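FAQ

Q: What does a record look like?
A: Structure on top, sequence underneath. For example:
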């Protein structure tokens, strides 16, 4: 079995087994470094930490059926500095903000700031270009527990030369926000390396309670605005006040072997929400949060019109999504659209939905979603594996207006979104409950194409009714088969459904429907 290097820094490396098994390796195997045993692993993506800079290593994998050898070299660096040298205490009580921020400011280009074992209590920090933050095992960067000590960042500022600069945003709008625990603005070449933890500590604040009455948007755990070449590797990110990792109008991003967690009942704690970003790799990550696991966004209609910067070229592979509202969500803030999204070799467990597209009238003509591919996905206990909903009724003042909910064929104008091609293959879904798929397009702008190939969906014998999509006048469903409305071209090939209540296929308002290997009995 082949193994490849996904990423390396001066002190870490991340690897991926090349196989077809979602997330988990076919067997446990031993990881050896220069013939010294490191640990036993059962994941396709795994990492090594505490490596020496600019050094050649030999990785060896050993198992009954798993064998592999790979020679790799870590990156060179200018220096590595212990954060204690700048006065950090790391006892979880002392305020380490000034020490850490000073160390970041003084760190030379291509330098690494090392956090040894300890709990580093800090207020929000600002990162700069060409640095690495490395959190050792049992090192925790712990968020400050008093909301009043979080600075408020403006959404936009007009510079003296008249240029409009953007600094903050939330839910698709350029608005003010509390400063995030780790923030990078207009920066490049930043690495945040594990195996330690970045903990927002929101459970000990009021960020999860009464937040609708706050004067501004809640902070993220990590916020990267208009950045390039950002990598997060191996850290445990947890307990953010709202979205955990929020890259914003950024490019060339890598998230490798990251664990992102929050309690199941924590509000709006999406794991990873890249917004209007380009070239994003999310590989070997695990998510268990209180909202969507991955939510791909591109702003509401105002940002979509102003910048027209779609979310483009995202690769999601070998990830485990657990207990979120959606495993992979597009929207609802997608005013500039999404194009070329590939999701493969992933495992969704206990999420409300597998793919969840949230859009509606009013997202705008730049809201074009096209080139979405899901392949080789295992879903276990996912209530509805596929949802494409063009009637989403949340997050906006007009969400219950007739314009949003009317089933009439309305005129196509500059407020009308566009849905292109969606391809689903090799999905193995067990213990579904609400619907196999629920796809509900607009009559005036039907979804262009949906294809299903080599799909297996079985329903739980204890399935309970639920709402497949958040829309006005939604009806509860239970063990609904394939439901498609306002889709121009439908292709169904080798699809097996077990335990459906009623018809296995309900399709309406389409131009063509091709079926082969599909039992409708």
């Amino acid at each position: 079995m082949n193994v490849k290097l996904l990423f390396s820094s001066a002190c870490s490396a991340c690897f991926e087994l090349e196989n077809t098994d979602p997330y988990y390796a076919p067997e446990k195997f031993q990881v050896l470094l220069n013939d010294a045993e490191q640990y036993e692993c059962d994941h396709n993506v795994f990492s090594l930490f505490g490596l020496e800079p600019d050094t050649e290593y030999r990785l060896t994998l050993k198992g009954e059926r798993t064998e592999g050898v790979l020679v790799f070299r870590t990156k060179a660096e200018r220096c590595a500095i212990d954060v204690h040298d700048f006065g950090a205490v790391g006892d979880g009580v002392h305020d380490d903000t000034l020490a850490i921020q000073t160390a970041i400011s003084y760190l030379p280009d291509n330098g690494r700031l090392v956090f040894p074992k300890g709990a580093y209590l800090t207020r929000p920090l600002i990162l700069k270009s060409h640095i690495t933050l490395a959190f050792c095992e049992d090192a925790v960067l712990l968020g400050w527990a008093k909301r009043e000590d979080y600075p408020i960042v403006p959404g936009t500022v007009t510079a003296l030369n008249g240029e409009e600069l953007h600094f903050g945003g939330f839910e698709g709008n350029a608005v003010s926000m509390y400063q995030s625990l780790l923030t990078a603005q207009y920066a490049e070449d930043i690495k945040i390396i594990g195996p330690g933890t970045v903990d927002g500590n929101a459970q000990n604040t009021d960020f999860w309670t009464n937040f609708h009455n706050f004067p501004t948007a809640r902070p993220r755990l990590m916020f990267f605005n208009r950045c390039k070449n950002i990598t997060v590797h191996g850290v445990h990110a947890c307990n953010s006040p709202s979205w955990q990792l929020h890259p914003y109008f950024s490019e060339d991003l890598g998230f490798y072997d990251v664990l992102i967690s929050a309690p199941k009942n924590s509000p709006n704690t999406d794991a990873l929400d890249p917004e209007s970003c380009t070239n994003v790799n999310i590989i070997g990550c695990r998510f268990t949060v209180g909202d969507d696991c991955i939510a791909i966004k591109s702003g509401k209609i105002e940002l979509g019109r102003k910048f027209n910067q779609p979310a483009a070229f995202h690769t999601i592979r070998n990830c485990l999504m657990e207990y979120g509202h959606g495993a992979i969500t597009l929207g609802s803030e997608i005013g500039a659209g999404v194009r070329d999204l590939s999701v493969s070799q992933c495992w969704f467990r206990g999420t409300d939905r597998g793919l969840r597209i949230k859009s509606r009238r009013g997202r705008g003509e730049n809201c074009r979603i096209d080139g979405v591919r899901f392949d080789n996905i295992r879903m276990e206990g996912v209530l509805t594996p596929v949802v494409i909903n063009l009637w989403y009724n949340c997050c906006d003042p007009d969400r219950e207006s007739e314009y949003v909910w009317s089933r009439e064929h309305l005129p196509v104008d500059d407020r009308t979104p566009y849905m292109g091609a969606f391809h689903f293959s090799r999905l193995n879904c067990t213990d579904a409950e609400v619907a196999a798929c629920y796809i509900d397009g607009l009559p005036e702008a039907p979804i262009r194409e949906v294809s299903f190939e080599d799909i297996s969906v079985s329903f739980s014998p204890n399935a309970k009714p639920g709402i497949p999509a958040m829309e006005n006048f939604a009806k509860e469903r239970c063990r609904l088969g394939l439901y498609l409305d306002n889709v121009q071209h439908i292709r169904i090939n080798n699809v097996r459904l077990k335990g459906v209540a009623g018809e296995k296929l309900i399709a309406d308002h389409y131009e063509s429907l091709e079926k082969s290997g599909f039992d409708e009995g």
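Q: Is there anything notable about this one?
A: Residues 318 and 346 are 5 Å apart (CA to CA).
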